[in-house]
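#dry-run=false #mode=assembly
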Amino acid sequence: MSNKPYATISRRAFLGSAAGAAALLATRPSWAAGKTLNVLSHKVHQTVLGADDGDLMKDWKAANDAEISWTTFDSNPLQDRLFREASLSETDYGVGYLIDNRPTSDIAALFEPLDDYLKKDGIEDFDDIAPGLVQGMTVDGKMIGIPVRHATQGLFYNEELLEEAGISAPPTTLEELMEQAKKATFKSKAGTPVVGMVLASDLAVFPVMFARAFGGDFITQNFELVPDLAAMEEGLNALRGMFEAGALPRSYATTKNDDQVTWMQQGRAAFTVLPFARNGQLNNPEQSKFPGKIKAIEFPISAALKGKMPMASVVEAWGMVIPKNAKDKELAWKFIKEVSSKRATLGMAINGNGPVRVSTYAEKDFVAKNPVAEVEAGVLAHARGAFPPFPEAARAQSTLLEEVQLAVLGRKPVKEAVASIIERVKPMMPA
Amino acid sequence: MRARTFLIGVGKAVAVCVILLWSLVPIAFIVMSSLKPGADIFAVPPKYVFQPTFQHYAELWSRWGVFFQGLLNSTVITAGATALAVVASTCAGYVYSRNSSRFLNASVLSLIIVRLIPPIVVTLPLFPTVNALKLNDTHIVLMVLYATFFVSLGTVLMRTFIDQIPRELDEAAEIDGAGRLTILRRVIVPLASPGILAVAVFVVVFAWNEFLFAFIFTATRAKTAPLVISEMLGSIDGVDWGILFAASTVQLAPVLLFVIFMNRYLVAGLTAGATKG
Amino acid sequence: MRSRSIASLVPLLAPVHILILSVIVLPSIYVIWLSLNASSFGQEPIFVGLRNYIDTISDPAFRSALWNTVVLVVVAVHVELLIGLGMALLFASGLPFRRVLLVAVLAPYAVSEVIAVVMWRFLFDPDVGPVTQALLSFGLPTLDWSFEPSHAMILIALLTIWLHLPFTFIILYAARLAIPADLYEAARIDGATPWQAFRRVTLPLLGPAVIVALLFRYIFAFRIFSEVWLLTQGGPARSTEVVAVYLYQEAFSYNAFGSAAATAWIMVLASLLLASGYVFILRRQVAANAR
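#status=ok
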């Protein structure tokens, strides 16, 4: 690849060849025999459906004489692109993958309601799909998406590091977790400085989990803002306390999601909160210094509430949607139907997907492959999204994170920060 | 006198070392990390002595074939955008250098002012327009976009460089009966080659690494390498740092090679220009 | 005699202006209209007049982002210019292995910003980063950038200089090499010291290139985004936010397109004011050069 503008090119010659090239590149090739379904998703959705011999959609493709063409992006760019495509007069995409905390009323209106499709050409044992996830894809009474993947948050800990710190068993209450995190802040035998817990500061998930552990929440499913003031303050105090004691990294404000994984793999932290699905990566001998030593349990609730109510961990789910301006909606629905079948759901689960069907958790093959399956199933039963979708949700999340950072870093007293959250987010709430 | 020369020499050597360290350390780390076993990449304390492995490159090849497709697309788009930008800028730069009028001066300023608009907002109306024209996911749309965002700088730069070419040469050629295009081709371009190469380098580097437009306007057929790398950083199922750094090293290489290659012409062109009276 | 009318010049000017018109100017007109509306996915735009502008300007987060941007741009660009000038002169004065060194100097420009930030984050990790360790071992102060906003701004400045210094360097170096050697010969014969040669020959002849480099560097630097977004995301608590990050949040995180459009126009105005000094000097040159 060498570019020699130094050569003498006459403008005419260039224009001529450019026009020829343009004609070649600008025209769209006509599709080969059969239909093509264009899917807009994250790469992981494509990989869990397998490829070549392990292609879960092999028979479907043959039966429908269709090819699947995947356009993949990272999560946030993907959502942005999906909404852009759905806003055009018509789009080439038949199926899109949507995250459950995005569809506000306006956005949901961009997608085809699927209740009628379900009645005419139903999905196998639809009630088997976790109702909470189905609820998440229902907006204004219309179901616009079929759940296909979920990621539920759990508490991960490094067995070896805990042992070194003199802790014999993982925590069963939040207060125990805080104690253990403070105790597990030390310099390990290997010479690595260890912090008790590593958390990213750019996701609402974590402050929400802490608030929920004390029986509170940020925004409930009924759009109540901070229903339990004391609980939210206790949650933030817990985080602040850990930071002050050095049990949260000093670089808390710039820690990202991936840092959590890397720190656990390198033994720089003893605890973290991550989706259960990360279990494989954390214990991967090719990347982790502690393969097999990183375990996962349910995030513990506070001692006062233990046994009285279940911990409502945070879950994020993906659903398959059909843009209203899609061309071949029938084919799109057939795809969705097939991917939602029991067979495909199990296959995807074995490939590392978080299955949306309750029955999958009982399947032997899946449980054998995924050591945390049982724990995850238990947590999923009581889990819900970090916050419900509404137009200013993203802004509300940013405001929450800003105030939480100020509180944790000690720049603002916790009480003031919580009051600030309520004051600033109130006008953003839906009427 | 000799002491002074020696001190200057030492000063230069120190400066060169600092420059080398400053420029190359981060890049060295990227390349090194691509050869480290996965668990050692972000090891604490950092590991400088390790067992090098090509495993990440092998996995890049087998699991991320789409990356190499992306490199191909990036190459085509970069070449096209650069050619377009350079040609357009040189023509316009030539006109602005050799002519002046209130109108022309104003239009140069307008070129610069127009560049103050953040590209992000321009995409809002362009996306539906490009789709309506059926130009989405084609190489040409990116070529045009990238070239557009560099013709302002290119034109001003070419004007500056062409200003340094004496007008007498133009006039001599004109007397010999040459038309404007011929003057451009035979007289201006060879002498302004350092400027042309400078502009080419800017466009190449920009187009090669650009993300925003590529993300908005492509899907599969014109997907560029930076998009694939950003997918590798996508945190749903975790980042494989080894593969990421391997991809980064591979992505870095062609542009570096281009710089090495054009280096030769840059120096040659400049010394040729300097010996002219 | 050839006609020097403007009409005959049009074909040569056409490509540049057609590109700019269709890709930037026309969409910008739409964006002006958009800034007077509230718009998002799935909604029809609603006319709100100047409210987006008022909301943005009265947002303390925007004003602090603007301040951060101005400080960052002014400091980083001038430091970069000085270093770039120094390096250009160093290279021009003759160096061994010049070609290899040239490649080394230009290498950072070839690295994508995303990867550069990943690597810099690790190198400067406050606990375990190699650079932090090296600084500590020499007894030098380290950058507590993930906690102190001012330290974070310093790191961002360093990073942006690292990434873009080659840009400034190329312009200055190419311009320096284009100065005919005879002028320096003449100066030497006249008994000029190196400093006088620099002031009388180099500086004036480099002037135009310096102005161009500064101007465009200002324009690009004002839009600094990746370095901030990927390093601190504007944190802690939005204290290192810059206007491009603010704009990105409005456009992509909150999908508030009208607000994003208004922010963009305010950015244009602000960067115009900042660059106006240099544009003025450029204009004088344009007039002066037309002989």
